């Protein structure tokens, strides 16, 4: 495991932008489109019994999945993700990563646009929504530049 050069400590956005900008033209598995997994997920997604999303409804999806298969599977999901039964009124009640809070420590509007270019086919082929934090970052950047959508 290589550590980050000491001169980049505290400069997460700069280091991440350099990483994104210097990626080779070949696919990088970190940004590999999800629609290519499972022999072309986008082609067979309608054949799956269950498709979950890691968004604000993640625990609703886990709960639905657990209830579908029940038994030990449901128990294990609850043990691993530390959630109780989900109601319509509660979202994400379990182990929270606060990922959206962490990504803004690394992404700049420019690096975000670049990453979205890499994975744009997922948003189209899998009918995914661009995360709220990303839309907000791009909207604020456009407003600073005098571009109003």
The number of helical runs is 7
Task: Determine the mean pLDDT.
Answer: 78
| Proportion of strand residues | under 5%
Outline type: globular
Structural class: mainly alpha
Please write the string of helix (H) and strand (E) elements. HHHHHHH
Radius of gyration: 18 Å
- Cα distance, first to last residue? 43 Å
User: What can be said about the biggest beta sheet?
Assistant: none
Poorly predicted residue ranges:
none
Number of strands: 0
Helix share bin: 40-55%
Element layout with pairings:
Blueprint (H helix, E strand, L loop, with lengths): L11 H10 L15 H8 L13 H12 L1 H11 L17 H5 L5 H17 L6 H13 L5
Helix pairs in contact: 1-6, 3-4
